[in-house]
Design a protein that fits this description.
single chain; Lipocalin; 8-stranded antiparallel β-barrel; 10 strands; signal; Calycin
Amino acid sequence: MHRLFTALLLVGIFTLSSATSHEKVCKNFTGKPYLNGTAFFKGTWSLTHALIPDVPKGAPVMGICLYIKSILSPPIVFQNYTTMLPSTGEIVYGQGIIVLKDGDSNFVSNIRLIEDGQPASKFNPFIETIIGTDYENYAVGYFCLDVVDSMFTGTIAVLGRSSDPDKIHPDVNNVLNKIGLKLSDLVSTIRGNCPEV
């Protein structure tokens, strides 16, 4: 269970598998039209908020810091995931690989855990849909992972170029409203300060 919990934190589900419902398929969201993959995958994104239905609105899940740094080598995107749990000092690393398609905002990333600089798991498919982004400040996405026996768990997440959950771009609410949500429906995943990576 600890391995699953760590893996879910790493890839963007950010909670125990029992805290979100399992579904037979990932949900289908309309992605941002004509996504500029080069602009989107430039630099580092930090997780600030996630939709986790079984956690009370407005409550922090726990103090976690998740960073996704991308290295673009068209048409391939290499992603390095760093998850820190400030309360325990635990740091978990992972890798992801995406093959870009021009203008496409729906991706299948292949991700795996890394321990001591070596792969610690096989690659697993991870579905990502970028619903909205301005490339420089925020991104709203749907992220879905096959957790066990073709049962999927997914979440809506807000990513920022800053790890400060209070620095939310005003357009985030507009994007969330289009899918029937508001920022107060999501929980902050950060408690305290996250160090910059």
